[in-house]
Amino acid sequence: MDLRKPALVFFILLKFVLQFVAINPIYELHRDEYLHLDLGNHLAWGYLSVPPVTSWISFLIISLGNSVFWVKFFPALFGALTIYFVWKTVAHLGGKLYALSLSALCITLSALLRINTLYQPNSFDFLFWTILFYTIIRYVQTHEKKWFWYAGIAFAFGFLNKYNISFLLLGLIPAILLSKQRHLFLNRDLLWIMALSLIIIAPNLWWQYQNDFPVIWHLSTLSDTQLVHVNRWDFLIDQLFFFSGAHFVLLAGFISFFWFRPFKKYKFLFWTLILVLCFYSFLRAKSYYAMGLYPVYIGFGAVYIEYLLSKGWKYKLRPVFLLIPILVIIPLFQLLLPVLSPQKIAEKHEIFETMGMLKWEDGKNHLIPQDYADMVGWEELAGIVDEAFMQVKNKEATLIHCDGYGMAGSINFYAEQEYTEALTMEADYLNWYPLDQGSIENVILVKGPWDDDPERKREAPLFDSVTLIGTVSNKYARDKGTKVYLLAGAKQDINSILKDEIAKKRQRIND
Q1: Cystine design at 275: which of 171, 187, 333, 432 (Cβ 3.0–4.6 Å)?
Q2: Burial class (CB in 10 A: 0-12, 13-18, 19+), 215
């Protein structure tokens, strides 16, 4: 009886089950998820924050009811598809049930569990890294032109999801040119494949051109505010934690390119890994940017281990190697995933601090991990905004103006009152202000804890009254202390003031 298909179904189902039980219901959506969901209400070929694919998925989620279930379903789906394509890769490399199961287990019980709980471009990104690897491997095996075409399409759609996949291409091209597989670039269809890829990504490139390439501003801001705190050695050390239960499999995969005759033709993949890690390390990239590299290498390692343990007494070691990923993930499960409440994490503060999980992008330690702090306090904020909106007389002439995109997006997601969407001059919300649809009489102002004008001296002259409605009190929230004000009865043309501020913001982006 062929158990490969039932085994694949088992791992896919296991993946979905783990993803849905891996989040303590006390947590809300992540601040980035709110932004990505709101993109679905403003479809375009590009955004300040991400390329367009995320907006397409968000549009589908909104069409399905915009529930938390669907928000979590799609990253879990992309994680399951990553397992599927590694499974297919292993099968085409000659791996049998043991290698298939080992690779699936190592990928399932890894840091991808955390990545696939969040509705961000990362899950789709790592999936398309895996697909691109798969298509190139299949082309090396078969020399069938269709696989080169599929590789071009995979890169294009990966690019439309997140520009990060460009670094994989930067690693692949020189690695292939310096290997015996350089004949890949002699394919007569190469120029046509490049043309097809360019046609697919052209609308996004045109959007970037029309908007003065905001991606450059986004990367510059990221570098100045976040990547500046990234240590190059820390980046490399962090790579060891993403697939902690698969170290022996990854090591076997790397060795196989040099010692296992059937895999020597894939040696360029080893140098691809080295080049990509060097690029990222030099640029002080966030550690998880490179996670898409490893699933396929785990596939190679699983096949090689299956070969090494195929005869004699070594065969009896097979169950041991299957147990390692399970035994490693058990003590790490509560560290990798938000299964513990913020209170429980605070009680185990020393453990999380030792693991370096309490250090935020500001380089300081806090009560809970930054990702978790980004998942609390939002419903409380939306409730305060609802309270403010109920006090407004002319609701149609009211604007909800926030300091940050997490605030705006969470209000749009959780608020019970029906009103025009909350907005901010951060990220893509900058382009969505309806300033030509009627004068603004009232503003519900949401100011972050970093605000230096709690008495609202700047806005007081512009309105008849300024009232503090409430403050976010959740001590674990990253935006604890956020205040909601009701500015009622505009004395001046608020639309014109906002237009000037938006123009200044856009000018800073363009500069």
Answers
A1: 171
A2: middle
